């Protein structure tokens, strides 16, 4: 076979596309931003589901439960213990009204949903007081007395509007980080990325619920990261 024939054969080879994991420290920020984007998307769907449940006449407890799940998902994006989290500075593009909404929902999450520390929920003990034939009877039964604020569908609407704008901010961060990471990747030998594969899901059980992500997640090996550094430095 002549050299020209070999070139012709190569030109006719099919294009193969597959997803592979980018095993670089520089990819950690983008991975966290993708995770935040996922949580915001889920929070959006839950807030929408709460509005639909209210419109369909579902019990207020159901509506509040779905809305609460949306609220928790939204504020997961601002936690910074394990992954990168959003901070107040990231919300600088929001209007004053939306910033007030953010603060309101944060207080609602912190002091009403996560902890009962405000007057929106009060509990006390009741006793059944019986008077028979004009005579007060001994107390023989106790019960639970309470009053609490029931979250309204307007909270779900307000949270949806807030999340929508925060998603725009995160999408902008993702695009910028993707461009930055592509520059790093394109400076590496092509076979470094092409030789990778997708991460296999780790095997977890309910017994792992008390462990940290670092204790349970299969981290990228040190040798792989060292190889990436060597390739960049070389």
Give an account of the 3D structure.
With 234 residues, the protein is mostly helical. It has one domain (23-118, 151-200, 208-233). Helices cover 54% and strands 8% of the residues. The chain contains 8 helices and 4 strands, in the order ααααββββαααα. It has helices at residues 3-11, 28-55, 60-76, 96-113, 153-186, 190-194, 213-216, 222-233, and strands spanning 121-127, 131-132, 135-136, 142-148. The strands form 2 sheets. It has a two-stranded antiparallel sheet with strand order 1-4. A two-stranded antiparallel sheet has the order 2-3. Helix 2 (28-55) packs antiparallel against helix 3 and helix 3 (60-76) runs parallel beside helix 5 (153-186). The longest helix is centred in the C-terminal third of the chain and has 34 residues, at 153-186. The chain is elongated, with a radius of gyration of 27 Å. The two termini are 37 Å apart.
List the helices and strands and how they pair.
Layout: H1 3-11, H2 28-55, H3 60-76, H4 96-113, E1 121-127, E2 131-132, E3 135-136, E4 142-148, H5 153-186, H6 190-194, H7 213-216, H8 222-233
Antiparallel strand pairs: 1-4, 2-3
Portion in beta strands: 5-15%
Q: So how many helices?
A: 8
What oligomeric assembly is this protein in? single chain
Total number of domains: 1
Shape: elongated
Helix and strand element order = HHHHEEEEHHHH
How is the main sheet built?
A: 2 strands, antiparallel
Computed structural class = mainly alpha
Low-confidence stretches: 218-224
Work out the number of β strands: 4
Strand order in the largest sheet? 1-4
Rg measurement, Å: 27 Å
Question: What is the terminal separation in angstroms?
Answer: 37 Å
Helix content: 40-55%
